[in-house]
Amino acid sequence: MVTTNWAGNIVFGARALHRPRSVEQLQELVARSNHVRALGTGHSFSRIADTTGDQVVLADLPSSVRIDADARTVTVSAGMRYGEVTGRLHEAGFALPNLGSLPHISIAGACSTGTHGSGDGNRALASAVSAIELVGADGGLRTLRRGDADFPGAVVALGALGIVTSLTLDVVPTFEVRQRVLEGLPDLDAVDEVLASGYSVSLFTYWRGEGFEQVWLKQRADEEPPAAGWLGTTEASDPVHMVRGMDPVHCTQQGGEPGPWHQRLPHFRLEFTPSSGDELQSEYLVPRTAVSDALRALDRIREQIAPVLQCAEVRSVAADDLWLSPAYDRHSVALHFTWLPDTDAVLPVVTAVEAALEPFAPRPHWGKVFTTDPAAVRPLYDRLPDFERLMGEYDPSGKFRNEMLDRYFPRP
Predict the structure, then answer these.
(1) Domain 177-369 top-level CATH class
(2) 40 with 106: CB under 8 angstroms?
(3) pLDDT band per the 50, 70, 90 thresholds, residue 262
(4) Of the candidates 298, 339, 309, which has an alpha carbon nearest to the alpha carbon of residue 188?
(5) Fewer Cβ within 10 Å of end Cβ, the chain: N or C?
(6) Does CATH number 3.40.50.720 belong to domain 65-173?
């Protein structure tokens, strides 16, 4: 059996791949296994889901979407993808506060790794979680709720505390969004203003010229659009893709036409595969206040970045209280890189990016490619010792551990 992640850069070392069809089957599997890890949709580029033991895919568990209109929550089974839930929420008059670029990713996997969308007022996707149910090391079910002492350490938990079976998420009233693509933002110092100009904003560059080639501006339908020529930009006359040469038919509708939140906040449509997976990705979150300085640090090494880059994206993320979230306790800017699918060529550049960003305390996305030494990661998370305590309490035998967790959270 050979199983890889979506991009194909990781070949998993699991001895067996399981697809339980019920929570009870999952409990039995976890109880008898020595080592077990959950695999979502495989959109991580790191070894976060790898194991030498049993690997579990939850997509065959019974799908469940339970909306509580009074509590303004939705409870979903962990194997579901965002795109399988959002339409049903919208039809019921509700929305999630934010979404990532892809509606194709599993909800549990995205929350467990600290995945996010964009927007000065929008926190990471895991911040919508108000309750989480998981299978513990003994095979028993455990539920943690917002307000419990351990809860902030159990949502972005990297699969280290158990296998998630369901999540309860906060919802808000449904809303409409307009998406426009503006081209040609020459001034790096304008990035701060641009990030604050919409509900969700993404800036794209290839690090081959001045400033940013594209600004994807997603505004609520009742927000005023920017004036023509704003900050030297022009609105794209036709749909565009952020990666040169890719067909924009995969992208969500542009041009300012209003539409439901779930059809505009992601960059890509659910009904299309956004790309072949021929790419690698890295991402680092730095303080929101450092955005201009961090971008200028990257600009100084553009000649190293550009030859192996497909595109780079800049987004803002509001602070949260989840211990291992890359946006923990600080408003952040996410500096994202989509690389060519050439690990040998990319890794030295990743190391150069990390060195350039080092003065800004960059927190790497747990599910992306990074080379940061554990000794440099540990000081970035004030509550990391508390998380290690949870690992010891929830999984004393190390059943959910793998090589990556042992590297960044070594056993006492």
Answers:
(1) alpha beta
(2) yes
(3) very high
(4) 298
(5) C
(6) no
